[in-house]
Amino acid sequence: MPGFELFGDLERKEVNDVLDNGVLMRYGFDGMRNGHWKAKELEKALEQTFNTKHVQLVSSGTAAISVALAAAGVGAGDEVILPTFTFVASFEAVMMLGAIPVLVDIDDTLTLNPKAVEAVITLKTKAVMVVHMCGSMGDLDVLKAICDKHKLILVEDACQAIGGTYNGKALGSIGDLGCFSFDFVKTITCGEGGAVITNNEEYYLHSDHYSDHGHDHIGKDRGAESHPFLGYNFRISELHAAVGLGQLKRLPEIINIQKKNFTILRDALATIPEVTFRKVPEGGEESYGFLNFFLPSLEVARKVSDKFKQNGIDACFHYYDNNWHYVRKWEHLKELKSLYPISEEVKTGLAYLKVAEFPESDHFIGRNISCLIKLSWTEEEVKARAAKMVEIIKEELA
Ligand SMILES: *Cc1c(COP(=O)(O)O)cnc(C)c1O
């Protein structure tokens, strides 16, 4: 998955444009920048990639989620429903606004189980955040219908899913707002960076202002711009945006390589009857950044994961035992360890987390192994890897 595996002259050329004039900031300094507006250019290019009306670049994927929620008016005491299987950032982004993350079970898509979502909707629920973990999606039509019925905002955390589609539409462009990350290990990287995408003009303007201290970005003189509301600094720099412009040009190539490598591994594992795969809903096309498969039991998955590591099959994750992507080990959040006081409302709203059990999520994540698909493998390497994986799994099943 990581775009840093394909890196070089395209990125260097874009970055050099910025270094040549020294304007590292995305706003202002019009006279000095020799016509280079890398962040604006990347936003336009991403609008085309996602076929969406608006893109707002920000400083990270975590920032993108906070900005998206803030843009839609999510704040103190509001509940946001999200899955037990996600990167911890999705949870943090909700907390940052004083809102309450309500975690619910996933299903065999490894994303939100729509029934679990419906079961926890209350009068306080403001948004549903679907997370397209490992490049694939849940049943977005059903989730969207639930949100419409209950007048909830649908936010897509598509940080791991650039290049994936659902019914021909880019992941991230289906909900009210979509969020992307361009951190160092994502499919395309800016070093650090993120994006909020939306077809909603008001949410876009909110994102644009909120991510730059509330600046309205109207007129020429930055100092004289007015501030219609409170904002913070979640800006991306021109240098980071320049890297992203180079990387974005590689996206079709990256997805092609991922699909090719993914298919070799999947076809090999599919010869083992006990191995099953993550469900991809009808109409869905994943981004092939990870291959996710299920083994018959938690015990077998643990053993296979250990054996993979011992045999040099790297970058395969058994998320059940991982600290960052699954609720089971989020002790610091369950105990609400915070540097500063957390409001009583959020404390009360989060009390469930200390005692909550997620048997259905355990059932899927316990048996799941997620293998990162690298871009740098030769065909021989992928085939050798596939053969070794099959051998290890068969040994453990015997
Ligand atoms: C990477 C990631 C994020 C956060 O992105 P950063 O750019 O690292 O802040 C959020 N959600 C998911 C699912 C991610 O994988």
UniProtKB/TrEMBL annotation:
Top-level taxonomic group: Bacteria
Protein keywords: Aminotransferase, Pyridoxal phosphate, Transferase
Query: Which Pfam family is one of this chain's hits?
Result: DegT_DnrJ_EryC1
Positions annotated as active site in the UniProt record:
K186 (proton acceptor)
Give one GO biological process term: polysaccharide biosynthetic process
Looking up InterPro entries in the UniProt record yields: DegT/StrS_aminotransferase, PyrdxlP-dep_Trfase, PyrdxlP-dep_Trfase_major, PyrdxlP-dep_Trfase_small
Q: Which CDD domains does this entry report, sorted A to Z?
A: AHBA_syn
One MF term in GO for this entry?
A: pyridoxal phosphate binding
List modified residues, type N6-(pyridoxal phosphate)lysine. K186
Instruction: Report the family membership.
Output: Belongs to the DegT/DnrJ/EryC1 family.
Protein's recorded name: DegT/DnrJ/EryC1/StrS family aminotransferase
Species the sequence originates in:
Aestuariibaculum suncheonense
